[in-house]
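Notes continue from the previous slide.

Worked example: a multi-chain complex. Inputs as given:
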Amino acid sequence: MANMLDTESTTFSPAGGRQALNWISVLLLLYLLISAVSVVGGGFKTAAGGEARELFEFASNPLLGLMVGILATALIQSSSTVTSIIVGLVAGGLPVMIAIPMVMGANVGTTITNTIVSLGHARQNDEFRRAFAAATVHDYFNVLAVVIFLPLELATGILDKIAAFIAQGLLSGDPMSLLGMNFIKTATAPVMDLGRVIVSPLPGPFDGIALVALGIGLIFFSILLLGRLLKTVMIGRAKRILHGAIGRGPVSGIVSGAGVTVLVQSSSTTTSLMVPLAGTGLFSLREIYPFTLGANIGTTITALLAAIAVSGDNAVFALEIALVHLLYNTLAVAVIYGAPFLRNLPLKGAEWLANVAAEQKLLALGYVLGVFFLVPGAILVLSG
Amino acid sequence: MAADLKNISLDDLKKMIEETEALLIDLRHEMVRRIEAAEHQEIDRLEVHLQDTGHRLHHLREFLTAVLADLRGPK
Protein backbone atom coordinates (compact mmCIF):
# COMPACT_ATOMS: atom_id res chain seq x y z
CA MET A 1 0.00 0.00 0.00
CA ALA A 2 2.76 2.33 1.02
CA ASN A 3 4.54 1.43 -2.21
CA MET A 4 1.43 2.17 -4.23
CA LEU A 5 1.13 5.58 -2.59
CA ASP A 6 4.79 6.23 -3.34
CA THR A 7 4.26 5.30 -6.98
CA GLU A 8 1.23 7.51 -7.26
CA SER A 9 3.00 10.44 -5.66
CA THR A 10 5.84 9.99 -8.21
CA THR A 11 3.44 9.72 -11.14
CA PHE A 12 1.58 12.89 -10.26
CA SER A 13 4.53 14.89 -8.95
CA PRO A 14 4.85 18.55 -10.00
CA ALA A 15 7.99 17.59 -11.95
CA GLY A 16 6.05 14.93 -13.85
CA GLY A 17 3.31 17.46 -14.59
CA ARG A 18 5.87 19.99 -15.80
CA GLN A 19 7.43 17.34 -18.00
CA ALA A 20 4.04 16.49 -19.52
CA LEU A 21 3.37 20.20 -20.08
CA ASN A 22 6.75 20.56 -21.78
CA TRP A 23 5.97 17.70 -24.14
CA ILE A 24 2.54 19.11 -24.98
CA SER A 25 4.23 22.45 -25.70
CA VAL A 26 6.77 20.71 -27.96
CA LEU A 27 3.96 19.09 -29.95
CA LEU A 28 2.05 22.38 -30.20
CA LEU A 29 5.17 24.19 -31.41
CA LEU A 30 5.85 21.49 -34.01
CA TYR A 31 2.26 21.90 -35.16
CA LEU A 32 2.76 25.66 -35.35
CA LEU A 33 6.01 25.18 -37.29
CA ILE A 34 4.57 22.93 -39.97
CA SER A 35 1.47 25.13 -40.22
CA ALA A 36 3.66 28.24 -40.55
CA VAL A 37 5.53 26.69 -43.49
CA SER A 38 2.19 26.25 -45.26
CA VAL A 39 1.34 29.88 -44.43
CA VAL A 40 4.59 31.04 -46.08
CA GLY A 41 3.84 28.85 -49.11
CA GLY A 42 0.25 30.08 -49.40
CA GLY A 43 1.29 33.70 -48.96
CA PHE A 44 4.08 33.47 -51.50
CA LYS A 45 1.76 31.87 -54.03
CA THR A 46 -0.80 34.64 -53.48
CA ALA A 47 1.80 37.41 -53.67
CA ALA A 48 3.72 36.07 -56.65
CA GLY A 49 0.82 34.70 -58.65
CA GLY A 50 2.54 32.67 -61.32
CA GLU A 51 5.65 34.83 -61.23
CA ALA A 52 7.65 33.30 -58.36
CA ARG A 53 10.58 32.64 -60.70
CA GLU A 54 10.62 36.28 -61.86
CA LEU A 55 10.51 37.53 -58.26
CA PHE A 56 13.62 35.55 -57.40
CA GLU A 57 15.27 36.17 -60.77
CA PHE A 58 18.13 37.98 -58.98
CA ALA A 59 18.93 34.74 -57.13
CA SER A 60 18.99 32.63 -60.29
CA ASN A 61 22.70 33.40 -60.23
CA PRO A 62 23.74 30.58 -57.84
CA LEU A 63 26.46 32.69 -56.23
CA LEU A 64 23.86 35.25 -55.21
CA GLY A 65 21.53 32.53 -53.94
CA LEU A 66 24.42 31.22 -51.86
CA MET A 67 25.11 34.70 -50.44
CA VAL A 68 21.42 35.21 -49.62
CA GLY A 69 21.49 31.94 -47.69
CA ILE A 70 24.69 32.87 -45.80
CA LEU A 71 23.55 36.39 -44.93
CA ALA A 72 20.00 35.44 -43.92
CA THR A 73 21.20 32.62 -41.69
CA ALA A 74 23.99 34.68 -40.13
CA LEU A 75 21.45 37.38 -39.27
CA ILE A 76 18.80 35.00 -37.91
CA GLN A 77 21.43 32.59 -36.48
CA SER A 78 19.31 29.55 -37.27
CA SER A 79 19.68 27.40 -40.36
CA SER A 80 16.54 25.48 -39.39
CA THR A 81 14.52 28.70 -39.62
CA VAL A 82 16.01 29.67 -42.98
CA THR A 83 15.62 26.20 -44.53
CA SER A 84 12.03 25.98 -43.26
CA ILE A 85 11.30 29.37 -44.86
CA ILE A 86 12.91 28.13 -48.09
CA VAL A 87 10.71 25.01 -48.01
CA GLY A 88 7.70 27.32 -47.61
CA LEU A 89 8.82 29.49 -50.54
CA VAL A 90 9.33 26.40 -52.72
CA ALA A 91 5.83 25.30 -51.74
CA GLY A 92 4.70 28.70 -52.99
CA GLY A 93 6.38 28.32 -56.37
CA LEU A 94 10.07 29.20 -55.90
CA PRO A 95 11.99 26.89 -58.29
CA VAL A 96 14.06 24.20 -56.54
CA MET A 97 17.17 25.05 -58.59
CA ILE A 98 17.11 28.63 -57.24
CA ALA A 99 16.56 27.34 -53.69
CA ILE A 100 19.46 24.84 -53.67
CA PRO A 101 22.32 27.40 -53.40
CA MET A 102 20.32 29.18 -50.68
CA VAL A 103 20.15 25.96 -48.65
CA MET A 104 23.91 25.50 -49.10
CA GLY A 105 24.41 29.09 -47.95
CA ALA A 106 22.27 28.43 -44.86
CA ASN A 107 24.73 25.68 -43.93
CA VAL A 108 27.63 28.13 -44.05
CA GLY A 109 25.76 30.96 -42.32
CA THR A 110 24.76 28.88 -39.32
CA THR A 111 28.39 28.40 -38.28
CA ILE A 112 28.53 32.00 -37.06
CA THR A 113 26.86 31.02 -33.79
CA ASN A 114 29.56 28.67 -32.53
CA THR A 115 32.24 31.08 -33.78
CA ILE A 116 30.72 33.83 -31.60
CA VAL A 117 30.64 31.40 -28.67
CA SER A 118 34.34 30.69 -29.22
CA LEU A 119 35.14 34.43 -29.02
CA GLY A 120 34.10 34.30 -25.37
CA HIS A 121 37.23 32.25 -24.61
CA ALA A 122 39.57 35.03 -25.73
CA ARG A 123 40.95 35.82 -22.24
CA GLN A 124 43.06 32.64 -22.24
CA ASN A 125 45.20 32.29 -25.35
CA ASP A 126 45.48 28.47 -25.45
CA GLU A 127 41.82 28.00 -24.56
CA PHE A 128 40.84 30.50 -27.26
CA ARG A 129 43.04 28.76 -29.82
CA ARG A 130 41.35 25.41 -29.13
CA ALA A 131 37.83 26.89 -28.97
CA PHE A 132 38.23 28.97 -32.14
CA ALA A 133 39.61 25.95 -34.03
CA ALA A 134 36.66 23.82 -32.85
CA ALA A 135 34.27 26.48 -34.16
CA THR A 136 35.97 27.23 -37.47
CA VAL A 137 36.51 23.58 -38.42
CA HIS A 138 32.77 23.65 -39.09
CA ASP A 139 33.17 26.77 -41.27
CA TYR A 140 35.96 25.20 -43.31
CA PHE A 141 34.02 21.98 -43.76
CA ASN A 142 30.89 23.79 -44.93
CA VAL A 143 32.79 26.04 -47.32
CA LEU A 144 34.63 23.00 -48.73
CA ALA A 145 31.28 21.25 -49.17
CA VAL A 146 29.99 24.23 -51.18
CA VAL A 147 33.18 24.33 -53.28
CA ILE A 148 32.71 20.65 -54.19
CA PHE A 149 28.97 20.28 -54.43
CA LEU A 150 27.71 23.59 -55.85
CA PRO A 151 29.62 23.29 -59.16
CA LEU A 152 28.77 19.58 -59.26
CA GLU A 153 25.09 20.38 -58.78
CA LEU A 154 25.15 23.12 -61.41
CA ALA A 155 26.85 20.80 -63.90
CA THR A 156 24.85 17.64 -63.25
CA GLY A 157 21.86 18.47 -61.02
CA ILE A 158 22.65 15.26 -59.18
CA LEU A 159 21.26 16.27 -55.76
CA ASP A 160 18.06 17.55 -57.32
CA LYS A 161 17.62 14.43 -59.47
CA ILE A 162 18.08 12.02 -56.56
CA ALA A 163 15.84 14.14 -54.31
CA ALA A 164 13.14 14.34 -57.00
CA PHE A 165 13.26 10.57 -57.46
CA ILE A 166 12.86 9.95 -53.72
CA ALA A 167 10.19 12.64 -53.31
CA GLN A 168 8.09 11.22 -56.12
CA GLY A 169 8.49 7.76 -54.65
CA LEU A 170 7.40 8.97 -51.22
CA LEU A 171 4.32 10.68 -52.57
CA SER A 172 1.60 8.10 -52.53
CA GLY A 173 -1.17 7.61 -55.09
CA ASP A 174 -2.64 10.95 -54.14
CA PRO A 175 -0.22 13.46 -55.69
CA MET A 176 -1.44 16.20 -53.39
CA SER A 177 -0.21 14.72 -50.15
CA LEU A 178 2.89 13.10 -48.74
CA LEU A 179 2.36 9.41 -47.96
CA GLY A 180 -1.38 10.04 -48.19
CA MET A 181 -1.23 12.25 -45.12
CA ASN A 182 -4.19 14.44 -46.00
CA PHE A 183 -4.94 14.72 -42.31
CA ILE A 184 -1.95 17.07 -41.94
CA LYS A 185 -3.48 19.45 -44.44
CA THR A 186 -6.74 19.28 -42.52
CA ALA A 187 -4.93 19.73 -39.22
CA THR A 188 -2.93 22.75 -40.35
CA ALA A 189 -5.83 24.40 -42.19
CA PRO A 190 -7.03 26.40 -39.13
CA VAL A 191 -3.71 28.30 -38.87
CA MET A 192 -3.76 29.01 -42.61
CA ASP A 193 -7.40 30.13 -42.44
CA LEU A 194 -6.68 32.37 -39.45
CA GLY A 195 -3.72 33.89 -41.31
CA ARG A 196 -5.90 34.61 -44.33
CA VAL A 197 -8.52 36.27 -42.10
CA ILE A 198 -5.85 38.46 -40.48
CA VAL A 199 -4.47 39.71 -43.84
CA SER A 200 -7.83 39.89 -45.61
CA PRO A 201 -8.28 43.69 -45.17
CA LEU A 202 -5.14 44.22 -47.29
CA PRO A 203 -5.37 44.53 -51.09
CA GLY A 204 -3.45 42.12 -53.33
CA PRO A 205 -0.53 41.47 -53.53
CA PHE A 206 0.03 42.96 -50.05
CA ASP A 207 -2.20 40.32 -48.46
CA GLY A 208 0.15 37.65 -49.80
CA ILE A 209 3.24 39.56 -48.66
CA ALA A 210 1.74 40.00 -45.19
CA LEU A 211 0.94 36.28 -45.10
CA VAL A 212 4.57 35.45 -45.95
CA ALA A 213 5.76 37.82 -43.19
CA LEU A 214 3.31 36.25 -40.73
CA GLY A 215 4.47 32.75 -41.68
CA ILE A 216 8.15 33.72 -41.30
CA GLY A 217 7.38 35.24 -37.91
CA LEU A 218 5.62 32.06 -36.81
CA ILE A 219 8.49 29.85 -38.06
CA PHE A 220 11.01 32.02 -36.21
CA PHE A 221 8.91 32.03 -33.03
CA SER A 222 8.16 28.29 -33.08
CA ILE A 223 11.78 27.24 -33.76
CA LEU A 224 13.10 29.65 -31.13
CA LEU A 225 10.73 28.36 -28.44
CA LEU A 226 11.10 24.76 -29.60
CA GLY A 227 14.89 25.06 -29.27
CA ARG A 228 14.63 26.50 -25.76
CA LEU A 229 12.13 23.89 -24.66
CA LEU A 230 13.96 20.95 -26.19
CA LYS A 231 17.18 22.03 -24.51
CA THR A 232 15.42 21.57 -21.16
CA VAL A 233 13.54 18.42 -22.06
CA MET A 234 16.32 16.65 -23.94
CA ILE A 235 19.44 17.56 -21.98
CA GLY A 236 19.47 14.21 -20.18
CA ARG A 237 19.21 12.24 -23.42
CA ALA A 238 21.82 14.44 -25.09
CA LYS A 239 24.19 13.70 -22.21
CA ARG A 240 23.59 9.98 -22.53
CA ILE A 241 24.29 10.11 -26.27
CA LEU A 242 27.52 12.05 -25.74
CA HIS A 243 28.64 9.77 -22.91
CA GLY A 244 28.00 6.80 -25.18
CA ALA A 245 30.12 8.26 -27.98
CA ILE A 246 33.28 8.77 -25.92
CA GLY A 247 36.10 6.51 -27.05
CA ARG A 248 34.06 4.95 -29.84
CA GLY A 249 35.58 6.59 -32.90
CA PRO A 250 34.49 9.11 -35.54
CA VAL A 251 31.44 7.29 -36.94
CA SER A 252 29.95 7.17 -33.47
CA GLY A 253 30.78 10.87 -33.16
CA ILE A 254 28.94 11.69 -36.39
CA VAL A 255 25.89 9.64 -35.35
CA SER A 256 25.91 11.24 -31.88
CA GLY A 257 26.20 14.74 -33.32
CA ALA A 258 23.23 14.02 -35.58
CA GLY A 259 21.29 12.48 -32.69
CA VAL A 260 21.83 15.40 -30.32
CA THR A 261 20.90 17.86 -33.09
CA VAL A 262 17.66 16.01 -33.85
CA LEU A 263 16.84 16.11 -30.13
CA VAL A 264 17.46 19.85 -29.73
CA GLN A 265 16.42 20.77 -33.31
CA SER A 266 19.41 23.06 -33.72
CA SER A 267 22.83 22.46 -35.22
CA SER A 268 24.01 25.74 -33.69
CA THR A 269 23.30 24.36 -30.23
CA THR A 270 25.21 21.13 -30.88
CA THR A 271 28.21 22.82 -32.47
CA SER A 272 28.25 25.57 -29.83
CA LEU A 273 28.29 22.90 -27.12
CA MET A 274 31.44 21.47 -28.67
CA VAL A 275 33.28 24.79 -28.33
CA PRO A 276 33.66 24.88 -24.52
CA LEU A 277 34.36 21.13 -24.51
CA ALA A 278 37.26 21.73 -26.90
CA GLY A 279 38.30 24.85 -25.01
CA THR A 280 38.99 22.82 -21.86
CA GLY A 281 41.60 20.85 -23.80
CA LEU A 282 40.04 17.55 -22.77
CA PHE A 283 38.50 17.00 -26.21
CA SER A 284 40.84 17.23 -29.17
CA LEU A 285 39.89 18.96 -32.43
CA ARG A 286 39.87 15.53 -34.12
CA GLU A 287 37.34 14.29 -31.56
CA ILE A 288 35.10 17.36 -31.91
CA TYR A 289 35.16 17.40 -35.73
CA PRO A 290 32.83 14.37 -36.32
CA PHE A 291 30.24 15.75 -33.87
CA THR A 292 29.99 18.99 -35.85
CA LEU A 293 29.54 17.00 -39.07
CA GLY A 294 26.75 14.98 -37.47
CA ALA A 295 25.08 18.26 -36.53
CA ASN A 296 24.91 19.14 -40.25
CA ILE A 297 22.97 15.93 -40.91
CA GLY A 298 20.75 16.18 -37.83
CA THR A 299 19.61 19.71 -38.60
CA THR A 300 17.97 18.60 -41.86
CA ILE A 301 15.14 16.97 -39.89
CA THR A 302 13.47 20.37 -39.35
CA ALA A 303 13.04 21.12 -43.05
CA LEU A 304 11.84 17.55 -43.61
CA LEU A 305 9.23 17.97 -40.88
CA ALA A 306 8.25 21.29 -42.43
CA ALA A 307 7.88 19.67 -45.87
CA ILE A 308 5.50 17.03 -44.53
CA ALA A 309 2.81 19.64 -43.99
CA VAL A 310 2.93 21.01 -47.51
CA SER A 311 0.10 20.05 -49.78
CA GLY A 312 -0.99 21.03 -53.27
CA ASP A 313 0.76 21.06 -56.63
CA ASN A 314 4.14 22.03 -55.19
CA ALA A 315 4.21 19.49 -52.33
CA VAL A 316 6.64 17.34 -54.28
CA PHE A 317 9.02 20.28 -54.78
CA ALA A 318 8.88 21.25 -51.09
CA LEU A 319 9.81 17.69 -50.17
CA GLU A 320 12.45 17.74 -52.90
CA ILE A 321 14.28 20.75 -51.46
CA ALA A 322 14.12 19.26 -47.94
CA LEU A 323 15.60 16.04 -49.31
CA VAL A 324 18.28 18.01 -51.19
CA HIS A 325 19.27 19.49 -47.82
CA LEU A 326 19.51 16.00 -46.29
CA LEU A 327 21.35 14.50 -49.28
CA TYR A 328 23.76 17.42 -49.54
CA ASN A 329 24.78 17.23 -45.90
CA THR A 330 24.99 13.44 -45.85
CA LEU A 331 27.00 13.21 -49.08
CA ALA A 332 29.27 16.06 -47.99
CA VAL A 333 30.13 14.13 -44.83
CA ALA A 334 30.58 10.89 -46.78
CA VAL A 335 32.78 12.46 -49.46
CA ILE A 336 34.85 14.90 -47.40
CA TYR A 337 35.23 12.82 -44.26
CA GLY A 338 35.50 9.63 -46.30
CA ALA A 339 38.49 10.86 -48.32
CA PRO A 340 41.56 11.29 -46.04
CA PHE A 341 43.11 14.06 -48.17
CA LEU A 342 39.88 16.07 -47.98
CA ARG A 343 39.12 15.11 -44.36
CA ASN A 344 42.21 16.85 -43.04
CA LEU A 345 41.73 20.12 -44.95
CA PRO A 346 39.18 21.61 -42.51
CA LEU A 347 41.34 20.52 -39.58
CA LYS A 348 44.47 22.12 -41.03
CA GLY A 349 42.58 25.28 -42.02
CA ALA A 350 40.98 25.63 -38.59
CA GLU A 351 44.26 25.04 -36.75
CA TRP A 352 46.06 27.58 -38.92
CA LEU A 353 43.34 30.22 -38.50
CA ALA A 354 43.14 29.59 -34.75
CA ASN A 355 46.90 30.07 -34.37
CA VAL A 356 46.74 33.35 -36.30
CA ALA A 357 43.64 34.54 -34.41
CA ALA A 358 45.16 33.70 -31.01
CA GLU A 359 48.09 36.01 -31.80
CA GLN A 360 46.02 38.76 -33.44
CA LYS A 361 42.58 38.59 -31.86
CA LEU A 362 41.16 41.42 -33.94
CA LEU A 363 41.61 39.16 -36.97
CA ALA A 364 39.07 36.79 -35.43
CA LEU A 365 36.52 39.60 -35.35
CA GLY A 366 37.48 40.59 -38.90
CA TYR A 367 37.00 36.97 -39.95
CA VAL A 368 33.47 36.82 -38.47
CA LEU A 369 32.41 40.16 -39.95
CA GLY A 370 34.06 39.45 -43.31
CA VAL A 371 32.92 35.87 -43.95
CA PHE A 372 29.38 36.18 -42.65
CA PHE A 373 28.43 39.78 -43.44
CA LEU A 374 30.84 41.91 -45.49
CA VAL A 375 31.67 39.47 -48.32
CA PRO A 376 28.09 38.20 -48.85
CA GLY A 377 26.71 41.74 -48.42
CA ALA A 378 29.24 43.25 -50.85
CA ILE A 379 28.57 40.57 -53.48
CA LEU A 380 24.82 41.16 -53.20
CA VAL A 381 25.15 44.95 -53.34
CA LEU A 382 27.65 44.96 -56.22
CA SER A 383 25.56 42.56 -58.26
CA GLY A 384 22.34 44.45 -57.58
CA MET B 1 73.75 2.54 -20.11
CA ALA B 2 74.98 1.07 -23.40
CA ALA B 3 77.78 -0.71 -21.50
CA ASP B 4 75.26 -2.08 -18.98
CA LEU B 5 73.11 -3.40 -21.81
CA LYS B 6 76.06 -5.32 -23.25
CA ASN B 7 76.25 -7.34 -20.03
CA ILE B 8 72.60 -8.42 -20.22
CA SER B 9 71.94 -11.81 -21.71
CA LEU B 10 69.80 -12.14 -24.83
CA ASP B 11 67.04 -13.91 -22.90
CA ASP B 12 66.99 -11.17 -20.30
CA LEU B 13 66.88 -8.54 -23.02
CA LYS B 14 63.88 -10.25 -24.63
CA LYS B 15 62.18 -10.45 -21.23
CA MET B 16 62.88 -6.77 -20.51
CA ILE B 17 61.49 -5.74 -23.90
CA GLU B 18 58.33 -7.78 -23.33
CA GLU B 19 57.89 -6.28 -19.87
CA THR B 20 58.48 -2.76 -21.18
CA GLU B 21 56.01 -3.27 -24.01
CA ALA B 22 53.42 -4.59 -21.57
CA LEU B 23 54.05 -1.63 -19.27
CA LEU B 24 53.69 0.74 -22.24
CA ILE B 25 50.35 -0.82 -23.11
CA ASP B 26 49.20 -0.52 -19.50
CA LEU B 27 50.34 3.12 -19.39
CA ARG B 28 48.48 3.87 -22.64
CA HIS B 29 45.32 2.22 -21.31
CA GLU B 30 45.58 4.16 -18.06
CA MET B 31 46.09 7.41 -19.96
CA VAL B 32 43.05 6.75 -22.20
CA ARG B 33 41.00 5.76 -19.14
CA ARG B 34 41.88 8.99 -17.36
CA ILE B 35 41.22 11.16 -20.43
CA GLU B 36 37.86 9.48 -21.00
CA ALA B 37 36.94 9.84 -17.32
CA ALA B 38 37.72 13.56 -17.53
CA GLU B 39 35.65 13.82 -20.74
CA HIS B 40 32.71 12.10 -19.02
CA GLN B 41 33.02 14.55 -16.12
CA GLU B 42 32.96 17.48 -18.55
CA ILE B 43 29.86 16.11 -20.30
CA ASP B 44 28.19 15.89 -16.90
CA ARG B 45 28.49 19.69 -16.86
CA LEU B 46 26.57 19.97 -20.14
CA GLU B 47 23.82 22.09 -18.56
CA VAL B 48 26.40 24.73 -17.63
CA HIS B 49 27.89 24.73 -21.13
CA LEU B 50 24.42 24.86 -22.65
CA GLN B 51 23.56 27.91 -20.56
CA ASP B 52 26.83 29.58 -21.51
CA THR B 53 26.26 29.12 -25.24
CA GLY B 54 23.09 31.22 -25.02
CA HIS B 55 24.90 34.34 -23.81
CA ARG B 56 26.24 35.56 -27.15
CA LEU B 57 26.46 39.23 -26.17
CA HIS B 58 28.44 38.21 -23.11
CA HIS B 59 30.86 36.29 -25.36
CA LEU B 60 31.33 39.34 -27.57
CA ARG B 61 31.92 41.54 -24.50
CA GLU B 62 34.47 39.06 -23.16
CA PHE B 63 36.19 39.04 -26.53
CA LEU B 64 36.34 42.83 -26.82
CA THR B 65 37.70 43.08 -23.27
CA ALA B 66 40.46 40.61 -24.19
CA VAL B 67 41.24 42.48 -27.41
CA LEU B 68 41.51 45.80 -25.57
CA ALA B 69 43.76 44.20 -22.96
CA ASP B 70 45.99 42.87 -25.74
CA LEU B 71 46.13 46.26 -27.46
CA ARG B 72 47.16 47.98 -24.21
CA GLY B 73 49.99 45.48 -23.93
CA PRO B 74 51.45 43.83 -20.83
CA LYS B 75 51.51 46.01 -17.72
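Summary box: Chain B has a mean pLDDT of 88. Residues 46-75 of chain B form one domain.
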